[in-house]
Amino acid sequence: MWQQVGDEEQHLQEPWYHGKVVGGRTKAEELLQQHSHLGDGTFLVRLSENFVGDHTLSFWHQGKASHCRIRTRQDGDTTRYWLRDNDAFESLHALVEHYRTYPIRAQDVSVVLDAAVPQPNSHERMEWYHANLSREEAEDYLGRIQEDGAFLVRPSGESGSISISFRAEGCTKHCRVKQEDQLFTIGTATFDSLVDLVRYYERNFLFRHVKLRYPVTERVMQGLLEQDQIGVSQPGGYVTYISNIHVKAKYSYTAKMPDELTFPKHAIIQNVNKAERDWWKGDYGGLKQHWFPAIYVEEIEAENIDERGGDSQVLGSLQKCLDLRGAEATVDRFPGNNRWGIKFIIRLTAPTLPQVLEVGCTSEQEAKEWKEKINSTASVDDGTQTRQQRETELRIKKELSDLVVYFRCVPFDAEKCFTYGGCHNEISSFPEHKMESHIQKNPCGLLKFHKVGFSRVYPRSTRVDSSNYNPVPMWNHGCQMVSLNYQTGDKAMQLNEGLFLQNGRCGYVLRPECQHDPNYDPSNLETLPTTHPISLSVKIFGCRHLSKPGRGCISPLVEVELIGCEYDSGQKYTTKAVHDNGLNPVWCNNLIFHVYNPECCLIRFVVYDEDVFREPNQIGQATYPVTCIRDGYRSVPLKNAYSEEIELASLLIHLKKNSDDDYQTLLRLRAQILEMLDASKRKQDEEKVTILERKLSTLDIDIQRYKAN
Length: 709
Fold this sequence. Notes:
This is Phosphoinositide phospholipase C. It comes from Cherax quadricarinatus. By secondary structure, this protein is α+β, with helices and mostly antiparallel strands. The chain folds into 6 domains: about 5-110, SH2 domain (SHC Adaptor Protein), CATH 3.30.505; about 120-230, SHC Adaptor Protein (2-Layer Sandwich), CATH 3.30.505.10; about 245-320, SH3 type barrels (Roll); about 330-385; about 400-490, no CATH class; about 525-660, Immunoglobulin-like (Sandwich). It contains 16 helices and 34 strands. The strands form 8 sheets. A 6-stranded mixed sheet has the order 1-2-3-4-5-6. Strands 13-12-11-10-9-14 form a 6-stranded mixed sheet, with helices on both faces. A hairpin with a 5-residue loop joins strand 33 and strand 34 (about 645-660). Helix 10 crosses helix 12 (about 445-450) and helix 15 runs antiparallel to helix 16. The protein is globular.
């Protein structure tokens, strides 16, 4: 909500207006001296010490500070401002703007006002600054605002810093601004004042494609509190209708009234409200809660929408389509010029389209190619398409088939394979989501099948960005070939590289012994056969020679995570960031992990750089099987996202693996956790207290099991 400022008060919003300066003329000269690097014409305006109602213009010229009195007089209902009798202005702002264009002339002075001396702590009088707001309160207020770019500024929890809290990508983010010697630094950019910084990012992107657009003022906060009191979540007291009902159009429909929807056949209408028997409301094509005839649609299950758009549509729910049967395309020249370089227009008409669809092209050749393809596609009847699709599905190249000498590819029969197991010379292929479904429904049957049978899992077709799925559950359920997108350097590929370190990155990795037990269920700790659980003690000392692309200092932090079966996964610890030290950051943190099934577990070290938004950016990682790591002081070479070693970069740690077979070892581990728990409670570290209490509870169960045996 923007507040209108009158011309007479416009100067109050300007950085050059300092109001009453404590210290008067001496302080003004000190400020000008500090900002003399800005050159001649650097200036500020302040209230006069000697003349009530007047102002003083102080500026820098030829290596020294000069001062001019700005006089005022009443001209009827208007106040006039002037330096010279024949130049009077209706506002102080107009006077300053005039002398920013035309020089001030005196005996030995001729200067044009240029850069303004920023006010010390000028941000404190801005509407977007909240001096007594905490991080939690900022997240509470911003969490109720849906628009990206809503922002406020508040003191940071760290001394010498200020935080900008803003909405971006549907969540609240925080950006730290450092304040040193009257300068404000964000990343590698430096500003003379926080007001200048905010104004810059109101015009330029702060985070990805988000600018600071909507200041959250005291008035906005009060409005949010009033909404809470009357129990609504939208401005004006209206609650948006939300429904889980979705319908699919059986026929196309063209709106006959302004409040009706227009949609083609097969369109998916969401958020449906069955307002009347024959007419419903829904969302489609950017229109919210418009009417449409109920007889034109059929209801579908919401969970089936993604499934229908999964393998059949490469882009999943993002993919849209047009029914081109009976369509006709024409090409016309685009009249006039435009900034996109469009020269030709393809006009598409079809029985299923409510209006002519126009698509721009930059070249005539491209437009004609699209026209020919559209018209040829529209002329193919349904029977021909079905026949060609069937021929394509059944056609098998003999040369390719002859290469298959080890396995015969067969469809997966779940009932047969889960009951009788697999066949040694047959292999079945699964997209990732199908295998995940089998893992959830019948994990023991899947292990039984994999004792003899073979499976191959591959990324689902909707991963058009070549991203990867988590391969660990597939490995833990016996899948022999887990295919990943090797061109993508992500966590999944790093886990894959780590797993195959135990055989020198060649051949197969032997299945863990526990998977041969007929009663074993990877998700159930009670079914784990007799193994050797361990407690893993890790001390993180520090890193060395960390680097990142681009400019700026590194603020590193370390994350240690266990990844394995469900009962071992989720153990994760993150250190605090060491600001601006990528050469030799030091932590000295002690960690303890309890591992029930070391054969199926990986340990992953990741070093992140915390940016000004407190977002972690990976700069190095190392992943190893728990069974392959050794005790003692270790220098862990760090690798990049593609598991290639980073020159000189390493993590210094101390490792110790303790076997939990000995009852005394369990008791000793319990005593260590109790000591760490007491220390965490004294430090009021609630997150660590919760983690340690969970570990203690799990360890007590182990001790009871040991006693029972």
